[in-house]
Specification:
Strand content: 15-25%
Bound molecules: adenosine-5'-diphosphate
Helix content: 55-70%
């Protein structure tokens, strides 16, 4: 039966709550999916915009460089040499690291390249000779060479060189003579003197060229370093080499390629000879030198890059005829597999200035920061690829499942393409997007409804089960209560019928007992009937204004009689004058009966019961006090509930149905009154029925 009930409730729960929630849930889920698609579409649009933004900003950045270049070129004279120098342009390119090289394209012929940041130039670029005084120097030195190279008479040569030095003041000759002195000193093993002389050369004539090509400063430093090495002074040798290498990086000398290569191989030789040295200081210097070498090899690449541009100009510009129109602005080309991006800006006399942009610099110092800046606002991951799909840049993480958005760089920028991946818009990301959370809230509401529904259903099922258990318990206790008065009535009636009670007093006693028991039964039945009527809300009261004293008195007297045999002492005290109250006679009888009956039932060993009737303000109080078992604190509120019976032992020891106090409470509340209970376990209880006087 109970199982059936439980199943029915669960069935209703499923029908009324789960099913609608399921339907709502499915609808909400579809809504979320749509929402997600919307979010994704918006995300893709944003990514597309972000990509365009990055490209535009890159373009704007390059344009800003071109514009500032355009501003300065008016003040610059057209260059005349293939590799030229210009301090303004040098400054410009030092300020703009994105500019890898600057060239000038006259109306005809190959471009002319600014010698900035170039380690060397092709050998044939150095053939032009315009070194002043080289003839005089040659004439002066010729005699010394005679002593030095033909006669191998070094002291004589030295003496000669030292003599002529005194009479010479010109830079070129002075430098070359000093260099010859150092050379001879080295030959006759005057190493310290030779070092000192090379020092002088380095300090006073670093830029003087011998044989029109080799700078004296570089020769002096190299020789000095070799001399130190000969003396096994490793550290000064390395220091000097380092100085030499860092000077080579500055645009101080213009070395031809073969001389540059020669210097580098000598330098390498010195370094490798020092490598064997075990001491720490040398180790440290070797490290420093290594870092200079690294940057030197970068510069080498840069030089190669620019020279390749120069060397292949025909490929780039075609056969440039004089006066041919050249498209301004940015162009792209590839030489030896390397990409070139250059801008052409019109200069004087039909010439064009050109800026070769540094792709690596654009990549790392312009685009990368731009991507990071944009990614911050739009939350995306990225990949930047080159023309052949090679990876140039990428974010730490690349989502696998989300389709990316591609943006190709336009033709006036390097041939790269930018791939932007949206952040995976998981279900909940789209749910929580501001203003788009409607379906999410529907979900939450469904969950709450389901949870509450489940909770209340379980609560109801439990209550029902509890109640039905109590009801069946009630049935068995009530039958017991009926059984004992009925049995005694039947036994006494039988004895009377069969004339087995001879004495008239005993007969009288039996009649009284039968009457009492049947009264008890009728109270019991009244209780049950009242209870069921009240449960169904059909109990009808007949209220009238009257004095309640006779009702209380009658009840007390009736109990006095019934319980006299058991030795109960039931006292009644009435505080006069008592105003009339509005009450239903029978119902009030029932209330007082139930309270005194309980007082007797739960008196334990005690036999004293006090009933008091007194006015209190605009109320009257009927109080029933016993000195019995009392009620535990936790039971106090529950004893008025249906079928509730407190305490296991008590319930077993005393017969009862658990509805007496429920009826008391309902009747009293129908009289707009209230029932209170005070109790001390083991010492007794007081039940107060408080009725208002001023009732309609
Ligand atoms: P019952 O038929 O069990 O007496 P009631 O509704 O009259 O049912 O009382 C409910 C419970 O309240 C009782 O089972 C008993 O535990 C407790 N109770 C009622 N009156 C008293 C009292 N005077 N002293 C101690 N316990 C009481």
């Amino acid at each position: 039966m109970e199982e059936m009930k439980r199943k029915r409730i669960i069935f209703y729960y499923v029908l009324a709550i789960v099913l609608p929630c399921l339907i709502l849930g499915i609808l909400a889920f579809r809504g979320i999916k749509n929402d997600q698609a919307l979010v994704e579409r918006e995300q893709r649009r944003n990514l597309l915009e972000a990509g365009q933004q990055i490209i535009q900003e890159t373009d704007a950045y390059l344009s800003s460089i071109e514009n500032s270049f355009a501003e300065i070129i008016d003040s610059i004279a057209n260059p005349r040499k293939t590799i030229f120098r210009d301090s303004i342009l040098n400054r410009f390119s030092a300020q703009h690291h994105t500019v890898a090289g600057i060239f000038f394209l006259s109306g005809a012929g190959a471009p002319l390249l600014l010698n900035n940041g170039m380690l060397y130039v092709p050998d044939d670029f150095l053939t032009v000779t315009d070194v002043a005084g080289s003839q005089t120097t040659r004439f002066i030195l010729e005699k010394g060479w005679q002593f030095e190279f033909r006669e191998n008479n070094y002291p004589k040569a030295l003496e000669y060189y030292q003599n002529v030095l005194q009479n010479v003041t010109g830079g070129q000759s002075g430098g070359e003579i000093l260099n010859a002195i150092a050379r001879v000193q080295k030959k006759i093993k005057l190493d310290d003197e030779a070092i000192e002389t090379y020092d002088l050369v380095w300090n006073d004539y670093p830029q003087v060229l011998i044989r029109n090509k080799i700078p004296l400063g570089a020769v002096a430093l190299l020789e000095k370093s070799l001399l130190y090495l000969k003396k096994k002074d490793t550290i000064p040798a390395l220091k000097t080499v380092r100085l030499l290498m860092s000077q080579m990086q500055k645009p101080m000398w213009k070395l031809g390629y073969s001389h540059y290569a020669n210097f580098i191989s000598k330098i390498d030789e010195i370094i490798s000879r020092c490598e064997g040295s075990p001491d720490e200081e040398t180790g440290r210097w070797m490290q420093r030198i290594q870092s200079v070498k690294d940057s030197l090899s970068l510069s080498e690449k840069h030089t190669e890059y620019l020279l390749a541009f120069l060397g292949n100009s025909e490929l780039i510009f075609g056969n440039t005829e004089p006066g041919r129109e050249i498209d301004n602005h940015r162009h792209k080309t590839r030489i030896n597999g390397k990409p070139y991006l250059f801008s052409l800006i019109p200069g004087n006399d039909h010439g064009h200035w050109g800026l070769i942009m540094d792709n690596d610099h654009i990549l790392h110092d312009t685009i990368h920061p731009l991507i990071l800046k944009n990614a911050n606002g739009s939350d995306f991951y990225w990949e930047l690829t080159g023309i052949n799909g090679e990876l140039l840049l990428k974010s730490d993480y690349i989502p696998e499942d989300t389709p990316p958005v591609y943006s190709a760089f336009p033709s006036n920028l390097p041939s790269w393409s930018l791939t932007l991946y949206p952040e995976e818009p998981g279900l909940f990301v789209s749910l929580f997007r501001q203003g788009k959370g409607l379906f999410f809230y529907i979900f939450i509401v469904i969950l709450i409804i389901l949870a509450c529904g489940l909770f209340f259903t379980l609560q109801t099922v439990n209550n029902e089960l509890h109640l039905s258990r109590m009801k069946s318990y009630f049935m068995s206790t009530v039958s017991h209560e009926f059984k004992s008065p009925l049995t005694s009535i039947r036994q006494m009636a039988e004895m009377l019928v069969h004339g087995r009670v001879p004495s008239p007093e005993r007969q009288q006693k039996y009649y009284t007992r039968i009457l009492q028991q049947s009264e008890r039964l009728s109270h019991l039945i009244d209780n049950i009937l009242d209870f069921s009527k009240m449960e169904e809300g059909q109990k009808i009261f007949r209220f009238e204004r009257a004095d309640i004293t006779p009702v209380v008195k009658e009840m007390v007297e009736s109990f006095q009689k019934i319980t006299a045999d058991e030795g109960f002492l039931i006292s009644l005290s009435i505080t006069e004058p008592l105003p009339d109250v509005v009450f239903d006679h029978e119902a009030m009888e029932q209330v007082i009966h139930n309270l005194i009956d309980n007082a007797c039932k739960y008196s334990g060993e005690s036999r004293t019961i006090e009933v008091q009737l007194y006015p209190e303000g605009n109320k009257i109080v009927i109080s029933v006090r016993d000195q019995g078992v009392g009620i535990r604190k936790e039971d106090k509120n529950k004893i008025f509930s249906r079928f509730y019976r407190a305490g296991e032992e008590l319930t077993q020891a005393v017969k009862g149905s658990g509805i007496g106090l429920t009826i008391v409470k309902q009747i009293v509340e129908s009289h707009q009154g209230e029932v209170t209970v005070e109790s001390n376990p083991g010492k007794g209880s007081i039940f107060n029925v408080i009725l208002p006087i001023s009732q309609k």
